[in-house]
Design a protein that fits this description.
This protein is an all-alpha fold and about 70 residues long. It has helices at about 1-15, 30-60. The longest helix is centred in the last third of the chain and has 32 residues, at about 30-60. The mean pLDDT is about 85.
Length: about 70
């Protein structure tokens, strides 16, 4: 929400000050947010894969008990 407010405010300030007729410069503030989101998504997927691998390894280590 903060990034949206900052980008919208910057665009409005550039247009209202007369520097630009139309501005998309403020939307560049989203780049760090999107990069951080991509890194967090990658870390989440890596963590999920590691947890699944540990569970699978633990499952493979336990001996199967035969039913009577």
């Amino acid at each position: 929400m903060l990034t949206f407010a900052a980008s919208f405010g910057l665009n409005k300030a550039l247009v209202l000050s007369g520097v630009l007729d139309f501005s998309l410069w403020g939307w560049l503030l989203w780049i760090p947010v999107l990069l951080a989101e991509a890194k967090l998504r990658e870390a989440r997927n890596l963590g999920r894969e590691r947890v699944i691998a540990r569970i699978q390894a633990r499952h493979d280590e336990t001996p199967l008990k035969s039913a009577p």
